Amino acid sequence: MGAITTTLNWTALIGWTVVAVMTVFLHLSGDDTPSGELMKITLFCELICASETLKIAAGLLRGDLALSFTVHYTRLLMYFVTMPHSEVSTTVVKMILLAWSLTEMFRYPMVLFPEVPLLRTIRYATPLITFPLGAGTEAYAAYKVLMVTENMLLKPVLGLVVLINVGGGTLWYPGMIHKVVRSVSGKKKAK
């Protein structure tokens, strides 16, 4: 792993941790609206994550290109279109931020320390909780905006998010469970 990649990975890990902590404190304080600072940190971290899609496409990083594109296209659409929309409640925005940040908080340690089997298991297990939360709230936010937008370009894009997050999520979830089982059984074989 090169120095720039390592620096970006540590930056993303720290940044997503800050997003998670700020989101939890925001909720506990009773304040509903995410601050501009929280949203800027979120965008910065998401752009680091989205840059990995380009690395996968260039063959510099292993990964599922279609899945990476879909995840980060959806996140950026949520960030710029649905999260700031008046039809989407601040509770939904906070749930999306929490799902994204927790997912990445538990993914980056495995990226930074790939030789640690426990980190791989945690990385694969975390989305069993965060994926339904994130995909569900993203689909709900997309649906809320879809129902009121008059923008004919946004309608199919938002409809696609609902379809992919609900339909695709239902299809992908068993595979996610399989990865956790395989990771745990691989850890046991190593002993």
UniProtKB/TrEMBL annotation:
Q: Please give the start and end residues of each transmembrane region.
A: 7-28, 121-141, 153-173
Please cite one Gene Ontology biological process associated with this protein: sphingolipid biosynthetic process
Give, as one word, the top-level EC class.
Answer: lyase
**Location of this chain's protein in the cell:** Membrane
Q: Which terms are listed as keywords in the entry? A: Fatty acid biosynthesis, Fatty acid metabolism, Lipid biosynthesis, Lipid metabolism, Lyase, Membrane, Transmembrane, Transmembrane helix
EC number(s) per UniProt?
A: 4.2.1.134
Q: Which residues form the signal peptide?
A: none
Q: How does it sit in the membrane?
A: Multi-pass membrane protein
The molecular function GO annotations come to: very-long-chain (3R)-3-hydroxyacyl-CoA dehydratase activity
Q: What is its main location?
A: membrane
Q: Does the keyword Lipid metabolism apply?
A: yes
Mind naming one GO cellular-component term on file for this protein? endoplasmic reticulum membrane
- Pathway it belongs to? Lipid metabolism; fatty acid biosynthesis
Q: This protein's superkingdom? A: Eukaryota
Q: Which family does it belong to?
A: Belongs to the very long-chain fatty acids dehydratase HACD family.
Name assigned to this protein: very-long-chain (3R)-3-hydroxyacyl-CoA dehydratase
